[in-house]
Structures are given as C-alpha cells and as structure tokens.
Amino acid sequence: MDFFQKLDSFNRVLISTHEQPDADAIGATLGIAWYLRGLGKDTRIVVTPRLPDFLKFLDTEKWIECFDPNFHRDIAAWPDCWVLADASELSRLGPLKDNFLAAKGGKGCIDHHIIGSSMEVFDFVYSNPDASSACELVLQAINFSSGLSMDMPLAMAQALYAGLVDDTGNFRFNNTSHTVFRMAASLLEKGVKPDVVYRSLYNQGTLAKMRLFGIAFERMRLYCDERLAVTTVSLDDMKSVGAVHEDLEGLVNRPMELRTVEVSALAYEKFNGSVKLSTRSKYRVDVNAVCRLFGGGGHRLASGATLPGPITSVLEAVVPAITARIEQDIKS
Ligand SMILES: [Mn+2]
C-alpha cells in the first residue's frame, strides 16, 4: 500500500502525533508536511502539549501549532484527511483524541509501534513494527532509498534524520539496520550535518534537568537480582529543581548503563494525577508484554503505559509484573 498514493485524493491534510512529541514524532510530521507541500497540498501540524524547545530547530518554517482547546475549537472541521505519525493508539493523542474522532474526513496513520486496539478508526494504515522509526517509514513511503536524485530541502532531510538518530539511540539499538544507515547516508548527501543534529538534540540540557536526573539516580532502586532498575519522579521533585516534564527525556535509558540491569522502569507523576510508566529492555525481556497488562503499548524493548496514581501503588503492581517477565524471558 502506498501511503502517499492514499493521500493523493485529499487537499487539506492535518498531521498529528502522540502527546509529548519526541524527535521521531516531530521529524515524521515535518517530513510528511514537506512532501505534501511539494505536491501543492495544504497541510497543518498540530501537536500537544507543545513543541519542546530542543526540537524547535527542526521546525524551520514554524509550521507546528501547539494544540489550544480554544484556538483549535473547530480543528476537526479543517482537514479532509487527518494523519497520525508515530502513533496509532488513540489514547496516546491526549486532548487531541476527541477532535480526531469527531473529524469527518479520511483518517490515516503511519507508525512503527506494535499495532494497538484502535485500528478500525483508520481508513488507511502504513505500519511496520520492525522499522526503526516513523521517519524511516516516511522515507520508505516516498521511495527515498531509490530516490537519491529526489529534490529534498535540507530542512526536510534534517527533520527525518533527527528521527532516525533518536529512535535508534544514535544508531546503537537493535533496530539499526543497513537500510537505516543507507537512508542516513543519503540524507547527509542532502546537506544534513550530523554534529549539528547531535548538539541540538542532546546538548541542550538545563541545570534543572541535570539536577532532576540527580534526584532520580539518588532514589533509584534495583530489584530482581539487580536486573530491574526503578526510578521515580514526582511533581514535587520537578518543582524543587524548577524542571518540567520534557526534562525527563532520556532518563529511562540511563540505568541501562549498569552492567546487571536488563530492564529500566521510570514512573513519573503527570499533572492530572495519573502516573506514566516508561520501560526499556536491553534485549532479552519483552517489556511490551508487561505494559500491555496495564493498558499500554509500544515496542518489544521500549514501551509505556499510563496508570492511576499514586506512584507507590503503581510500583506495587508493576515491579512484580516486570520481575515475573524477567524470570520468564531469561532462562539462566
Ligand atoms: Mn518513533
């Protein structure tokens, strides 16, 4: 199925992604917008709650709108097609979900997460859980690997490159295929500077973020013969150092640096009183299976879920579930 062929019959395309967008989410929405605008289509990108500061360098044309319930009151009426990139599970849309459901036009999705429960709402789906990133899927959908001669603006190439970089953990995770490297090389030929993207994505931290990581590491606990690392962050923790939720980006990956750790779990409080659980696995343990028990999803080695608070009751449920999964998946 050709993703962009499906979009061909539409003229006003709205592009959205999951809540708290990361580099892949933003890169993919921008990549799609650049491509469709090149075809003369009208596009808008709406994200929630906002475009993180460290990703603003990707939005060179300032296309990205932050969802505002008042300003975007009639957003559902605007598109003749609404596309989700890097998300297919509607619960991950946050406050955009109701508008998405209310929209009358076509609905599509391009995503590399393990397919969730809400697929019947889409008219067309371009999905492959083996792809490293939504940006890889966008590049595949525009036939980029065979389209070196394609005229691609630098800003589009840079946005898609940022998604490849971030979702492969800087080309280190097991989703780093030869296809990813070929695509990355082709994007460099369009003028992308890897050091510029690297500095923009990873060297934009604040003292508040580093202090927050300090609090989290200080409190980190190991379970299950030190194979499970659990970190927690409360709203009070964030307040005490002046940090915000986007400062949590990257935290869940850090305990993976410990030799014995197979799974890292981070639980943090959201403003609405619920707790977001974020999990990472080195390579043996299926953390997606665990997150699904709690209504979440994602990838085999990187998944998440949202549970009712407080954090202590989340840990009471989650730690035994992850421990059981570690014992099931690692037969020593
Ligand atoms: Mn992604």
Q: Which molecules other than protein and nucleic acid are bound?
A: manganese (II) ion
> Which topology of the largest domain does CATH recognise?
inorganic pyrophosphatase (n-terminal core)
Low-confidence stretches: none
> From the helix content, strand content and strand pairing, which structural class follows?
alpha/beta
General shape: globular
**What's the total count of β strands?**
12
Please give the alpha-carbon distance between the first and last residues: 43 Å
Write a structural description.
The structure is a single chain. With 332 residues, the chain is α/β, with parallel strands linked by helices. It folds into two domains: 3-202, Alpha-Beta Complex (inorganic pyrophosphatase (n-terminal core)); 207-329, Roll (Diaminopimelate Epimerase, Chain A, domain 1). It is 35% helix and 19% strand. The chain is built from eleven helices and twelve strands. The strands form two sheets. It has a six-stranded parallel β-sheet with strand order 3-2-1-4-5-6. The protein has a six-stranded mixed β-sheet with strand order 7-8-9-10-12-11. The radius of gyration is 20 Å and the shape is globular. The mean pLDDT is 95. The structure holds manganese (II) ion. Manganese (II) ion is lined by residues 24, 86, 112, 133-134, 167.
